[in-house]
Task: structure prediction
Amino acid sequence: MNSYFIKRFAAMIITLWLIITATFFLMHSVPGSPFNEERTTNEAVQKNLEAYYHLDQPLIVQYGNYLAALVKLDLGPSIKKSSQSVNDMLGRGFPVSFELGFYTLLVAILSGILLGVLAALRHNGILDYVAMSIAVIGISIPNFVMATFLIEELAVRFPIFPVATWSSPKHMVLPILALATGPMAIIARLTRTSMLEVLTQDYIKTAKAKGLSPVKIVFKHALRNALLPVVTVLGSLAASILTGTFVIEKIFAIPGMGKYFVDSINTRDYPVIMGTTVFYSAILILMLLIVDLAYGVLDPRIKLHKKEAK
Amino acid sequence: MEKILQVKDLHVSFSTYGGEVNAVRGVNFELHKGETLAIVGESGCGKSVTSQSIMRLIPSPPGRITGGEVLFQGMDLMKLKEPELRKLRGANISMIFQDPMTALNPTMTIGEQIMEGIIQHEKVTRGKAKEAAIEMLTLVGIPSPEQRLKQYPHQFSGGMRQRIVIAMALVCQPDVLIADEPTTALDVTIQAQILELFRDIQKKTGVSIILITHDLGVVAQVADRVAVMYAGKIVELGTRREIFYQPQHPYTKGLLQSVPRLDMEKEELVPIPGTPPDLFSPPVGCAFSARCPFVMEVCDKAYPFKTHLSSNHQMDCWLQDDRAKKLVSTFV
Amino acid sequence: MELRKHENRNISPDVPDAWFVPKARNQTDAEAVIRPSLSYWKDSWLRLLKNKLAMAGLVFLALLTLLAIFGPMISPHSVEKQTLTLQNLPPSSKYWFGTDDLGRDVFTRTCYGARISLFVGLMAALIDFIVGVVYGGFSGYKGGRTDNLMMRFVEILYGLPYLLVVILVMVVIGPGLTTIILALSITGWVGMARIVRGQVLQIKNYEFVLASKTFGTNTARIIRKNLLPNTMGPIIVQMTLTIPSAIFAEAFLSFIGLGIQAPHASWGVMANDGLSTILSGYWWRLFFPTLFISLTMFAFNVLGDGLQDALDPKLRR
Result:
């Protein structure tokens, strides 16, 4: 088990390093200086600014500096907002985004699994049909469309929920709902398909022949096996929730990391773009690692296979 | 002999895309206490469906039991409510299936899988359940059962998994064990061991066994009585001796001729020509008529009556009608 | 029913004597096949036709294509002409979907947006197809170390968050239609490559390929005649699922300001514009673009699902 963990961790570091490098060179390949976008700045001022931000150094040196700073977990200063560093922005924005993302994931997983299991148990019945239709709609409607729809119906037309910001639990309902619909639909469909397949397996027949009640069969025998494919998809779901926060935070004016990121894109604040990208990538890779390990724990065939391979 | 299970006029159909398939078309047999009854036939003849229908384990769409009774301990299992039936499953009547590789839940320890049956039915403590499980594993021949309880199915070989499945089925000491092709997925040498195990267990516990198989070799090794099935009906039923040495039905004779035996004089195996009929529109007469070397006009037009050749031996064939006996010589 | 003893003989009285004669029959009776078998493609097509939802999706997409091609032509209004006096008019018989804040007809712009979305979707799918099939097919066919190496590369790309990469690329190369397609293609082909490689590996070992090889047919011919027809199923399904994700990506990018820029009309841009007016009550500006985005993605998704079911050989009857 340990050698597996170490190998995955190493792979994780390598991928992260690749992303950092790629992002760095990508950002620095944009022609022109970030200080001269409107071409109105005085040349001397521009030169001074560039020196201050070390942009006059050779690229390799800048790269080295960047990596050195990263090891110290310093993501650098913002260019467009001179009083703030990237770390500052992340410090303020991340807790909010994390809350949003975490609750979204929770809602999506719980409701998705429940819906999927119910649909599978009432296969080809009305519940199945309705649930899966809702699921397809959920997958098709992009989260920002869903968000605008929810605002329109539940905040403007019938002012049940507040339109924007993040100051109370009531404020959290619409954003989480908008962000969770897609992932919930995906989980529901996957759970249903997986459950249907598991229910045709021989060991379910065996369990039935032992006289176990349907509830026990579903929750003790079937679910454990049916959820395995769902776990593998959690990694990419986390990624889509994360990118979803960009638009959701923008629409609902939530002061999270996504909002800073989108702003920095629009103002071409490269250090912020870089730093946030690196941070996001680290989170996603960490999520993938967690998912992998969770899968190893849940499926005894994998866990023990690694042990025996030693 | 005491009758422990009785199947009367069982009919089972399946609704499929192509129409309704009459898989079981009126099956009758009895199981006596302490015996092993083998039900033998080709793939698709309905033997598995029959065995699974006894405890109503057929998936309900698309399958349907459309008629008949299954009498056990004075109850008709076809009429029992589901919760009542569940009390019997695993406790009084147990069933094991063909493929040991897939019959066990890959994400649960085998100890858990064996113990849950006895905990469910006899409401014992986990400690007692563990003891019973260990006892069972020893009975089926799994070495160091204490340690192996905590292991997962994929850590065992095919033969050992089938032993575990058997242990799981017998842990509550049922009266009847239904084994659906238990050796088909195993190597021949393992097969022999498992059949030996069946005999052993029957001697020790007195359980009555219904064994489904397509392999006459298996039948010869363990069966006391044999039922030969074809196209959803039992065409001949008798003791092992009677079926192997005095087969009367053309199908039974055909089966025996198509299986290699050490005492054969001829070198050639004679397969039965043709394939089993399509059960979408079951034939009115005898289903074997299309392939029978002795077929007469009457065979297509009406289903033969049952003939009792002895107290144990019975069959359905028009050749037993006196009028047919005149013709038999012309068939040779 | 027992055979009755009638006058000391075993005779069933209801059955006439005349029937007890040997039956003449021909050999073929016993082996007659009952149901005609259909070819794989025919069977799949029939199955797809039965799927009403998938058919609805297909019909919608056909109509959408017509709208995209002919819509701007039949509409009396122009896409770009700004008439400030006609700002924000609700839908009417003259302006079917109303006008936006620069007096432009929303219907015409929506049709234009359809052009863009369909174009982006199809181009992305096409590039994914070409690159993915070539890469995956080659990797699977060669096998061994080449395959291993190529797949390592794919795995690394797969681990990168798709939209993040797209966003970064867009930041660097700037907004625009061609750049969007470029950005989508950089990592989009990975899914297709994996599927194609998997299929190729499976089929490579099938006996009919080995048989072909023993006859001395060359590699390209084998790929064309043996491998491709069998892998078309998953490939087609993958393509129908790539298109909506490409359309989504375009709308997403335009929404956050990185995609198509004003004054061009893409559904994402229009939705972004419409959003800012949500509180002013000009519902049609947000409603129509978002409706079309949703319906289009829905149609592709159900069609993709339907195709997946229809082309699955395990579900053949």
Residues 113 and 265 of chain C are 5 Å apart (CA to CA).
